[in-house]
Amino acid sequence: MASIRITKEFSFEAAHALKGYDGPCRNIHGHSYHLSVTVTGNPVTSLNSPKRGMIMDFSELKTIMKAEVIDRMDHALILPSDLDISELKKLGETFSKVIVVDYQPTSENLLSDFAERISKALPDEVKLHSMKLRETATSYAEWYAD
Predict the structure, then answer these.
(1) Is-catalytic flag, 25?
(2) pLDDT tens readout for residues 37-59
(3) Would you say 130 and 144 are in contact if contact means Cβ atoms under 8 Å apart?
(4) Domain 4-144 CATH superfamily
(5) Residue ranges per domain, the chain?
(6) Does the active-site annotation cover 31?
(7) How do strand 76-80 and strand 98-101 relate by DSSP bridges?
(8) Which of 59, 67, 76, 80 has the fewest CB atoms within 10 Å, counting from its CB?
(9) What's this model's pTM, rounded to 2 decimal places?
(10) CA pair distance 94, 125, nearest whole angstrom
(11) Annotated catalytic residue 75
(12) Pick the catalytic residue: 25, 31, 34, 60?
């Protein structure tokens, strides 16, 4: 049987700041992110399987995405680890959901992080194919498996 792709869409709210950036995004600001996740695989063919005809149940993909990305990132402040550590400690005392990442938290880098997390959590027979992270109504980044 041919390989099939399925896509599920997600949304989360988050703020970030881009250290050293030469525009307004160097300031803390937020986005209503929209994330499309596409996986690929072969539909289950076993007559005895409740998942017959599916690559995976959409609810299983939702569970993985909530655990690996959505619950972690939703309503978080995402900052790069090379900011002044004393400032980060102060933020952590004031805000309960500050995520410090070892990269500049651009849409492109967030997608790379998400891809690594999601790929590890998917069933062996299902592979991550692509993702689209929409930062605004007119701006997005895309990730594709090589």
Answers:
(1) yes
(2) 999 999 999 999 999 999 999 99
(3) yes
(4) 6-pyruvoyl tetrahydropterin synthase/QueD (3.30.479.10)
(5) 4-144
(6) no
(7) parallel
(8) 59
(9) 0.90
(10) 43
(11) yes
(12) 25
